[in-house]
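> call design_seq(struct)
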């Protein structure tokens, strides 16, 4: 079987997973209640949801500028925002983290420093995943969905382990040894996973000499741009449809959906977002129809950023074409 056929089959399999999840979601909806929810929704909050999304992307772009500057790879916030928006456009068809190469290619074309960009992206994505994992664990401890002591104790132990690993990984004296140990652990894995893991560890090692003040700045940027703004998006999406649940629940939903959405089997978080919202909100007696409408409002953020990405792509494409025509004219004149 050719490589292209394998890729097509993988894509069909991922589409099938999304289709099965969405089929389950549609089976839960009471369409009469869904129609009523559409009529009674407070759509003025939608503008706040969209505005918060754009601000979140802009702050994450500022954070990426700071990381790339550390790698002697200067770039503007506008460039990073545009690259993120275009990546959001491609994420509508590329599952999970598989949209990352799109962003890498755009930044490589504009900076001419592919290895520096790759290193910065690995650090950015790794720290975000660690951070969101910690956020999800804290939210589980606070909300304690099961109502018993098992979840808080287990989550506290995992959280402590996660924090220790992060601290050791970026400690100049211990970090290289831990990286070496992790590389040995990766050896039994399949070649494709092992090579990606080793490459990521190699890039992370370049940030082990960075001062702790730099890492704490990144944590602060994550807290503002992801936790505060991300939670605000969920709060106002819930307000739009009249859902009233504790903020801790929304933080948990946001964190879990973000982490699951990074798996390369979900496209634009479709299916996993709806199932997670319906499942968790059912614990608070929220109807599946309201949860689905809330999910659609959150999904509209993806559509918004994809549209902005399309505008950026067209503008940058026209600019490149103009430069090419200008260069051809100069060559003809010579």
């Amino acid at each position: 079987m050719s490589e292209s056929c394998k890729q097509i089959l993988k894509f069909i399999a991922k589409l099938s997973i999304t289709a099965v999840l969405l089929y389950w979601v549609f089976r839960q909806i009471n369409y009469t209640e869904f129609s009523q929810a559409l009529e009674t929704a407070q759509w003025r909050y939608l503008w706040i949801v969209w505005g918060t999304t754009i601000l979140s992307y802009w702050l994450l772009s500022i954070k990426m500028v700071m990381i790339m500057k550390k790698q002697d790879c200067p770039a503007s916030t506008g460039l990073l925002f545009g690259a993120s928006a275009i990546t959001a456009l491609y994420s509508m068809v590329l599952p999970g983290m598989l949209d990352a190469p799109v962003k890498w290619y755009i930044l490589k074309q504009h900076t001419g420093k592919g290895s520096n960009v790759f290193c910065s992206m690995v650090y950015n994505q790794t720290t975000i995943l660690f951070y969101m994992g910690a956020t999800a664990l804290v939210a589980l401890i606070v909300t304690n969905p099961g109502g018993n002591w098992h979840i808080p104790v287990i989550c506290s132990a995992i959280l402590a382990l996660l924090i220790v690993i992060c601290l050791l990984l970026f400690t100049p004296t211990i970090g290289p040894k831990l990286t070496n140990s992790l590389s040995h652990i990766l050896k039994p894995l399949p070649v494709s996973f092992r090579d990606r893991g080793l490459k990521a560890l190699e890039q992370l090692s370049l940030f082990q000499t960075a001062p702790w003040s730099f890492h704490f700045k990144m944590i602060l940027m994550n807290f503002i741009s992801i936790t505060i703004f991300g939670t605000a998006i969920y709060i106002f999406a819930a307000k739009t449809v009249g859902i009233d649940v504790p903020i801790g629940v929304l933080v948990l939903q946001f964190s879990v959906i973000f982490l699951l959405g990074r798996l390369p089997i979900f496209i634009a978080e479709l299916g996993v977002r709806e199932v997670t919202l319906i499942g968790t909100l059912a614990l608070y007696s929220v109807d599946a129809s309201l949860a689905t409408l809330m999910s659609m409002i959150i999904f509209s953020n993806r559509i918004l950023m994809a549209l902005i990405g399309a505008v950026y792509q067209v503008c940058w494409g026209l600019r490149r074409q103009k430069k090419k025509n200008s260069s051809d004219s100069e060559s003809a004149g010579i």
